[in-house]
Write the structure tokens for this entry.
Amino acid sequence: MTVAQRAAEPQRQTVPVTIRAACGSAIAAYPARRDARAVRVRSIDVLRGLAVALMVIDHVRVFAGVPAGGATPGVFFTRWVTHYCAPAFVFLAGTSAYLHGSAHRDLPRFLLVRGLWLIALELTVVRLAWTFNLDFGGHAMAGVLWVLGGSMIALAALTRLPAWAAGALGLAIIAGHNLFDGRLAALDGPVAWWWKLLYVGFYAGPIELGAGGPRVQVLYSLVPWVGVMAAGYAFGAILTHPRRDRWAVAIGAGAIALFAILRALDGYGDPRPWSASPKPGYLAFIDTTKYPASLDFLLMTLGPMLVAVPLAERARGAIAGWLATLGRVPLFFYLLHLPLVHALAIAVAGLRDGAVDPWLFTNHPMANPPPPPGYAWSLPLLYVVAAVALVLLTLACRRYADYKQRHADGWLRYL
């Protein structure tokens, strides 16, 4: 049964007339939840597969000692193109949660358990894969799995609301959270670490968990990403609508247009005016703030993704099939790619330099010192290593995706 056919089934729930008039028919009806296998939407797998493939480039860049952005177009776009990854992960996780809830009655519990599981993985498996050291008492990081897990826990509560209400709250957070810029960073005292965790992030320094305790570097602060996941949850209702392609393109194009307007005005939407940047104008214009994710950053990244939904749904051929395979098992891919990329970096160092520098075993990617003089790779080497990693990861993901399809129940649904 197709998604559109599911949307046409009886037992629909409708939103209030005022919201319906404002938002149109895109989220006016969505199917009641029932116990069945969750709908699988190809566009979600393809777009998520593209995100994890781009992510490999960025994480090879970390171990290659190449800076995150720069004035030269090659270095700048090597980092910039990977900005798509985190917004796609978080938004589509919300969309997948809606589709899961359309087929299962345990959505809040599922989100709570999965959220806690992701946070536990971030602080253990992922930390070890990044660093290859056992300095757990001196360094921890709240990275992408942390923010996915925390946002899922928040979404577990928001699923008690209608999808349109959760989406409206998510859009309000996305649009309004930059009002806090310049205010929360100045907070001090016993609640300061909460603000670091929720909004300010690593710019205010690490969180100190007691005297001599672990230091937590907050890479992804929670507030804006809860908004992104809630908006993605509401988008799941749009994916059940017969006109989903039209609505996805319209919303995505609107986000792109709003980004262009806000960025041209160079006022609200990003704490860093692009007109004051030392970068060339065309680079500065798209050099938006990711930590914490600004309104401009989210419009710039989510808009094109939404426009691409119909294309991803219809995409066929070897490349689309490859991306869909990766996108079916994104957590497995994530947990596997970090130790693989790290090991490849060690191998490259041994072959290129005849020795492995201790820098590769420091607290990447946030508390490591600068790379040794002369260590940084060339961009061609960076991309060759990323391609090798993707080939190896594809072989593993293809096998695991087939296995998971045959064993879809039980604990595997959390991986």
Observations:
- The chain has 17 helices and five strands.
- Residues 155 and 230 are 7 Å apart (CA to CA).
- Confidence is low (pLDDT under 50) at residues 1-37.
